[in-house]
User: What shape does this take?
Amino acid sequence: MPIAIVSVPVADQDRAKSFYVEVMNFAVLRDDPMGPTARWIQLQPPGGGAFWSTGSTRCRRAASRG
Assistant: This one.
């Protein structure tokens, strides 16, 4: 079974997006706001395949504290 979605928590979404788009040549499928401090970024590698999404580690830390 092929991998369909990979989720990667990152500390800096702008830096991660820049790396994957400019260096790895990924396509941006969506970049939508998610609350005041985070975005939902969905990328796809060249040639299609899996969707790659990034979530802010800051957002996850805040949610885990309750």
